[in-house]
Amino acid sequence: MSSTTKKPDSKQPKRPVPETDQFFSILNNFPGIAYLQAPDYSIRFANKKFVELYGVPDDKPCYATIWGREEPCTECQTFKVFETGEPLTWQLSYSDGRTYKVYDHPFTTEDGERLVLEMSIDTTEQLKAEHELDRLKETFQGMFRNSMV
């Protein structure tokens, strides 16, 4: 090694990751589903969980990738965000019994393109636990109301 070549100093701060790289890294590691949807129904980004559940979107529109449909969904909640520009939270239940809490937010790219960031979390087990707690609450309230004490 020549005397002019410096060894990397592990104490030097690392080059900061650009904000967009950090953002997409966070979305990619988000435990729920996250994707960016365009008004033309294309998916501009899909995180690992999305790809695990639905596959790589490639050039397929959202309704084909997620639902296997040939036409757009008639009551797409996500498109309300394009219309209003306001975030929207809603619940989605699948025929297999899974339930998701969905968060849709307006998203504007650096070049000004309007998209919707959709993130969803599987809340199936939480809802089951809440229903069980409600059932137990009713049972115990009935027992106390009917007790002789």
| Number of separate helices | 5
The tally of strands reads 5
Question: Portion of residues in helices?
Answer: 25-40%
Order of helices and strands: HEEHHHEEEH
Q: Provide the β-strand percentage band.
A: 15-25%
The low-confidence parts are: none
Strand order of the largest sheet: 2-1-5-4-3
How would you classify the helix and strand content by structural class?
alpha+beta
Question: Could you describe the largest sheet, including whether it forms a barrel?
Answer: 5 strands, antiparallel
Distance between the termini: 88 Å
Name the quaternary structure: single chain
Whole-number radius of gyration? 23 Å
Nearest-integer average pLDDT: 83
User: Given the C-alpha coordinates, what overall shape results?
Assistant: elongated
Describe the structure.
The chain is of the alpha+beta class and 149 residues long. Helix content is 36%, strand content 23%. The protein has five helices and five strands. A five-stranded antiparallel beta sheet has the order 2-1-5-4-3, with helices on both faces. The chain is elongated and about 70 Å long. It starts with 18 loop residues before the first helix and ends with a helix.
List keywords for this structure.
alpha+beta; 5-stranded antiparallel sheet; elongated; 149 residues; 5 helices
Describe the structure in brief.
The chain has 149 residues and is α+β, with helices and mostly antiparallel strands. It has helices spanning 19-29, 48-54, 62-67, 78-84, 124-146, and strands at 33-37, 43-46, 88-93, 99-108, 114-122.
